[in-house]
Amino acid sequence: MINSTQDTTSAAAILASQNAQKAKDNPTASAAKGSSDTQDRFLKLLVTQMKNQDPLNPLDNAQVTSQMAQLSTVSGIDKLNSTLQALSDSMAVGQSVSATSMIGRGVLVPGSTINLAKGQAIGGMDLAQPADNVSVTIQDAAGNTVRTLQFGEQKAGVLPFAWDGTTDTGATAADGAYKFTVDAVLGDNATNPTSLSFGTVGAVTPGAQGATLDLGPLGGFALSSVKQVM
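^ thats the sequence. predicted structure below, dont judge the formating
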């Protein structure tokens, strides 16, 4: 005969382990039918234990109650996982739908590229703290400084800027891609502002981690990377 009380691994614990592995292998399918499958397997296993128990050492009522409590916990976790997954999917779809309204709009995202076209270029910076003096240095592909822009004292936050293509010598820079760096000083200390590139949203791609914005030459960026919509 099977002595159930001598088995230190309860029926509910075995089922919990099986469900954890199945959820890892196929989380969607497990969430959909995990609760009912768990209950069926538990009842079959419990009935088998009771049928084969040792009459001289029967299954303890407290043990059965404990296993039932564990089953309720496992079933509750299955339902919670299913609900959270459905909520996450719904939020991802909603985010993607909302992001489509940004197609054709200009945005600032982390980057150090500034594109000059027909005497117009836009860049930006994200200041984590106020600064007594802020400057932007624009360089060509060879690393030569083309223009230095001074912005003086600025508050913390996102600050867009424009460049008309004029160089420090007064000449007109050729259209194309340039690199720029942002320097900020507070008192006697240099801070670490984030440079921001400007791009136009051409398309929105839904994904498991949320919407991705296609910014053309700049590449793809998560919606959360956008610092400002212009």
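Residues 1-12 have pLDDT under 50 and may be disordered.
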